[in-house]
Amino acid sequence: MLVPAMNLAEIRKEIDKDFKIVVRKSNYVMQDIIKENKPLRSKRIIKVFDYLSKHKNTWIYKWDLDKKSCVPNYLVWYYGDRGLTAIEAFTTGDALLYYTSHYFKRYNERLNLQINDPKTLLHTFMNNHIAYMFQYLEQVSPGVWKFFAVTKNGVALGTYIKSLNYYKMNTFITHAMLKGNQLEMKAFKSAELDKYLANVHKLD
Which of 112, 127, 139, 130 has the alpha carbon at shortest distance from 190? Predict the structure, then answer.
């Protein structure tokens, strides 16, 4: 079970215990969604699900479906003394996105969501979350960079550690809060994001 005192190696080990099972279970769910919604045609379906693993880890996963693509997201989360923490894992590669409690506080506050329940907040986040386009900024130490990551409803700021393939999502700001050269980065990365999404979801 994930606990706040775990280091990154322990977190990875705990996620690895669950991840293949979570992915397999989610694939069964995805097949059921497709059957229930045939024919998909021009439909786009986004659904979020909870899963408690046998190791007592709390997962949330999402399927974003249309007739040409099935895109999942996987998040494991816990609530500790510092608040809500979540880790996003991927079926390809070993990257982890570690969302701090501060990130979710600012996400809730700056989007004016006014959500008090952590699970409800995560469901809202997952419904809105699609992908990030990362811009690496200054290198703060060997192999460690600050980053600026654009998504549809804002920007994540944090730190990337290359040797660990680990992104620490420190805080969230809205597009309206950007200024100076951030606006130029946002425009460039938003164009990349739009191109990516157009390739993923090709509705008639």
Answer: 130
Residue pair 144/161 in contact (Cβ under 8 Å)? The answer is: yes
φ/ψ (deg, to 5) at 70: -130, 105
Per the document, the length of the chain is 204
147 with 167: CB under 8 angstroms? yes
Task: Tell me how many degrees the CA angle 9-11-12 measures, rounded to the nearest 5.
Answer: 65
* 10-residue mean pLDDT series, the chain (204 residues): 91 96 97 92 92 97 92 94 93 93 98 96 94 96 97 97 96 97 96 89 55
Distance of CA 170 to the CA centre of its chain: 13
Q: What is the DSSP string of the chain?
A: ---TT--HHHHHHHHHHHHHHHHHHHHHHHHHHHHHT---TT--EEEEEEEE-TT--EEEEEEEE-SS-EEEEEEEEEEETTEEEEEEE-SSSS-EEEE-HHHHHHHHHHTT-----HHHHHHHHHHH----EEEEEEEEETTEEEEEEEETTEEEEEEEEGGGTEEEEEEEE-GGG--THHHHHHHHHHHHHHHHHHHH----
First-to-last alpha carbon distance for the chain, in angstroms, is 44
The residue ranges of every structural domain in the chain are 8-200
